[in-house]
Each structure stands twice: as structure tokens, then as C-alpha cells.
Amino acid sequence: MKIFFTTFNQEGKGSFLRALALAKKLAKLGHQLTVLCASQQNTLEEKHLDDVRLICFPWGKRFLHGYNLSEVRARKRWLGKQRFDIVHAFDMRPTCAQPAFQARRHGALMLSDWADLFGKGGSVEERSNPITRAILRPIESYNERVLRKKGDGVTCICSHLYKMAQGLNFSDKQLLLLHNGFNQTINPRTSKLEARQHFGINPDLYVAGSLGAFFNKDFQLLKSAIEYCQSQKDISFVHIGQGNTVLQNTRVITTGRLSDTELSLALQACDILLLPMADLPANHGRFPLKFSEYISAGRPVLATRIGDVPGFTEKYQCGYVSAPNPEDFAKTLLEAFDKPKDIEKRGSNALRLSQNPEHSWNSRALDLQNFYENLLKNS
Fold it and tell me: Which residue of 91, 211, 287, 312 has the smallest Cβ count within 10 Å?
């Protein structure tokens, strides 16, 4: 099949990573894959990554990703009257949706991927500026709940969004629950001691880590939990990579931006990796890629009971689950650190889950291939 993915994210960020992982595996299955994204360098580029054709477009500096009309026009000009069997829009912002509709007019079956809840009740509500919230709420809601209905099918990253898609009158034959694959590449595989030596972390400390950015309420949950834990036990916390909020605490290590190799080392320097998600509608509509990165590092995950992650965590005993509040999150972490052998066992379970073929990106691509074929057969 000739397949066309369009994403609004910059190369290397957000849903682009999900799209690229699926595209690479579909290419290995013998399909022709083209992926559109925003350029990191803000220039028009074409490249090939593992048999995937990648087209990167300039997106300007003044617009929210996915809304720059000049980028929409550039993408549509590039697309022209090219023919594809499948077009898959990784979200429904204009830079994704408009090229997808254009490809559909030229014969492609059109699908959307639903991996975030952006509109009313979703992440738009977590924006700090009330004017921005008021402007974006109806626009984001229209994109994801009205435009999406015009497609031929939906892939959903989690069960909450699957149920929402059913509410848009898609039949189960038009829907696919498609979690992220779990086999992220975490290299080099190294000992905890070597990883800690790289960052100058005391090998005898209890260390918990978290990766990337948070919603503000997630951050407040984590911050309160850290403060409580450190009042009870000598625990170090590592904030890995870049985030929208820096933990202002002298007992929190912040790494800043890291190379892929250093990111792997930082994850493996920790005893437990943290996934604090507050009880927000936006969090119910997520399945964070960092869960895959955590278990691929061979470390147990401490997650709050939100979304689909706790189900995997409990089924495969690859971590711990708490209520979505600071008190229970802190209590669960402290109890875990009282049982170091259990931490090691759950870390081994996490690594084993990341290597489970049933949950690999290749398995997800096979599911997606079958979904495409069934939709084409019935179209």
C-alpha cells in the first residue's frame, strides 16, 4: 500500500514520534510510507529514515503548531494530485487535516489518529491564559469532534478516546485501539552504578526520576509528593530532559536537554520512574510515550490510577499504582523504597514487558495494517 501520514508536530516531538515508529514498521512490511511534519530548522527539507520518506515544512514562529496557514498551503502545494491508498492524519489541526482531505479527494481512504484530548474539557483547559483558552476551546473541539467524523476510521491511543470515538458514531469496525509500542531503544544497556557515575549521583541514594514536561496540576502533585517524601527519607529526585516547569528544589537534580545516549543513562540511574497524572480529562485521553521509555530502561514505574497505564502496570507487575493525589503517591513511593528486592523484581518485569513481542511497535504496525486492509475491503 501507498500510505501517507501527516503530523503537525516538529520532527522528533509529540505524536510525530508515534507516527514515525509506526511508519518504519509498516515500511518493513513492504508498504511505501511518506510522513509530513514541521521542520526543526524551520526550512523545507526532504530526507529518508529507514525507508520512510520524510518531508519537513517551515512553520513560522508566531503560530501554535498545526495552525499556520502558510504551512497548510505549502503542504497542499507539495501534495498536489499525488495518489495514495491511505492517508492517516495524526490529529486534526489544519496542517494535518487539510492535506488529508485533499488526498482523500484524490482517492485515498482517510483516517485520523486520536492521541490527545485537545478541545473542551481537555488540554485546552490547562492553558494558563484565559483568553487563549476561550479562543482555542471551540476551535480545538470542532477539529477533533466534528472534522474527525468526516473520516473513514479512527485509531485511538487509549480506551477513553476509543469510547469518545464511538460517541461520534463510528462503528467498532471503523475503530482501532492502538496503544504505543513498548520496545523503545534504550542504549547503551549499562549498570545503575555506571549510570550514576556519569551524572555524579551517589550510588547509595534512593533515586526517583521523571521525564519531560507536565501539566501544571501534574507538576503540583509531583512537587507536593517530593516535599513530603524528602521530609521522611533521604531520597533524591532527578528531572530528566526539558520541561515547561523546573523543580525549584536544591535536592532535585535537573539534567536539562540530553542526547539520546545520556537520556538512556539518566533513566537507568534511577531506582523508580515516576508518571504523576492528576485526575484531569486531558490525562484520561493520553497514553504517554514515556511509559514505554521507562519500562525499556528496566525500571519500575510509579503511576497514578488514570487512563490505561495502570492496567498494564498491575497486570505485568512492572511498577506501582497510587491514587491521583500527592499523599498516596508519596506513601506508595516510600513503601516501595522500603522493599529494594521488590523494586529490582518489578524492574526486571518492566524490561520483560518492553521486550514482549505482543506489545512491540511491529505488533502495533501489523494491527494497523490489518485495520487498513479491512477498511479498504469494505469501502
Answer: 312
Task: Give the CATH number of the domain where residue 235 resides.
Answer: 3.40.50.2000
The reply to whether 43 falls in a domain is yes
In a domain, 139, yes or no: yes
In a domain? residue 44? yes
pTM score: 0.93
Report if residue 187 sits inside a domain.
no
Q: Residue 166: which domain range?
A: 2-181+360-378
Average pLDDT over residues 4-21: 94
Cell 496542517, residue located: 95
pLDDT for res 326: 96
Same domain, 209 and 331: yes
| pLDDT per residue as tens digits for the range 189-236 | 778 899 999 888 889 999 999 998 888 899 999 999 999 999 999 899
